[in-house]
Amino acid sequence: PVPSQVDTISTIESIQSHVGKKLYVQFTDENFFGGDIRRLESLIKLVEQLRNIDFHGLLGIDTRLDTILRTNESFADRNVRMRAWESMARIGLQYCFLGVETFSSTQAARYGKNLNLSNFAQSVAYLHNLGIYYTIGLILWDPLMTIDELKTNLQFIESHNLLGKTASLLKPMRIMVNSKYWKRYGSQCIHTDQIYSNMYLFENVTYSDPYIQAILPFVRYAYYTLDKNGYRHSDVALFQPLCCNSKTLVEIPFLVSSFEYTLIKDLLMPQALNANTENIYAQINDRICLLAKTILSGLNELNDLQTNTLAIKRYYVSVFSRVLQSVEH
Fold first, then answer.
1. In contact, 137 and 101? CB cutoff 8 Å
2. Contact 244/279 with Cβ under 8 angstroms?
3. Contact, 235 vs 166, CB < 8 A?
């Protein structure tokens, strides 16, 4: 059963009494600000209850882009929406995962999403003004994707300066059992693709576009070189409130995202696949090596850090030391 708001507050109060200011609370509702106005009013009440227990930690949520600003609602409803967001920000909301999935309208239609990006710039600017960091969840690689769809996503990311603010641009698609994609491609999945009882990675599915299929092994190699060595693409924005005074730490997600973006762009260039496979992998290794060395060099110069920031530095040193070792050997 889902705990009541009272149970949630009691749980937070109990944990806070043990960990103090180090407490970070992530609400796992997939659309935290979704629902009608009564939902937003309940969030304002939640803030009041957090204030009553002297909450002094950080909060994180998952929500949809269209729950930030809505042009089609009344002035009164918009006022309640803004009060809810601003109240949450004042009590400690500093991180938001936005499940956008794609910036391509045709790809969104396949995902069953009603994509409306008309308020995108205003919405993320609003989060920025509230002091809320965000990660945009994307699913770029699906078996029916076209090169034009991929380019549309890359163009939107570039034009809105989103490098470092998205989930991995290389991440494989994960499919729920009994979904539309599962019904079409589930028979191609094998046991090793299973990550949960009801979810599979689409590792062995053949993509419909032959060129996308041809570059896919290189995309996955780059992704797993980072992922399997501990780099958590979707989580690093969580660190930003704790390391905002360190330019070196803040820039790391941007450096990784730029590497991914440039790799995809280069793989889409004419003649990109003219080199033999071994040489392409070697070139990717060289890029990853340069990325890791750049990050480790910057980290090596960081000294006199506070406890939280030092922990983040140690995490990055551990990850990129392993990344460097994996590509050098």
1. yes
2. no
3. no
